[in-house]
Amino acid sequence: MSDGTTHYAGCIQAGPKHYECALAEIGRLRDTIMDLRVKLEAAGTYEDAYEAGYQAGMEEKKPWVSLTDDEMKQCSYGAGGFMIGREEAMRAVQAKLKEKNNGG
Question: Is residue 5 a part of any domain in this protein?
């Protein structure tokens, strides 16, 4: 494609008489690189995002709270004071741990 002169797309490869075309193309590429660098720096890096997420997760983490021996025994007995089945006891332990660690 011509702009009415001897210059055309890709003319920079035609030799020394298109030196100014090559300089103009270098300038356009430099501007593009600078724009992309600014955008990339503003966006941060994958490592920055990973570190921020890791730190946020560590800050919000509460220490694990286990059941006492008495609480575990209580989970083994039903309302009438009789020992309950293993599956029911496991569900009671799970509910008690959830209550102590998640406030639920």
Answer: no
